[in-house]
Specification:
The structure is a single chain. This protein has one helix spanning 47-58, and strands at residues 7-11, 64-68. The protein has one domain. The chain is an alpha+beta fold and 83 residues long.
Length: 83
C-alpha cells in the first residue's frame, strides 16, 4: 500500500473537536488531550474509522502515522469556475 514510506501524515480539520455541531462537545482552546469526540457525534465523522484502518494496516509493518489539526487552511485555487 505505501511502498517505502515510513510516515503517513493525515490532515484533519476541527470537525474532530465537534466544531461543526450545534451542541458543542468541546470548547476552545482545543487540545489533543481532549480525546475522541464522544458518541453519537463520533460516528458522524470518518476520523475514528480512518484511524482504526491505519492502525490495522500498519500492524507488523515499519511505518507509522501522525495527524495534523491546523486552525485554518489558507490556499488559492487555480481552477476556473463556470457560472
Amino acid at each position: 500500500m505505501l511502498g517505502n514510506q515510513s510516515l503517513v501524515e493525515v490532515l484533519k480539520i476541527t470537525q474532530g473537536y465537534g466544531i461543526h455541531l450545534p451542541e458543542r462537545v468541546f470548547t476552545a482552546p482545543f487540545k489533543e488531550s481532549m480525546g475522541q469526540l464522544p458518541e453519537p457525534a463520533g460516528s458522524q465523522i470518518y476520523y475514528r474509522a480512518f484511524e482504526e484502518l491505519l492502525d490495522k494496516q500498519r500492524k507488523g509493518k515499519t511505518w507509522t502515522w501522525c495527524e495534523v489539526r491546523p486552525d485554518a487552511i489558507a490556499s488559492t485555487s487555480h481552477l476556473q469556475c463556470d457560472t
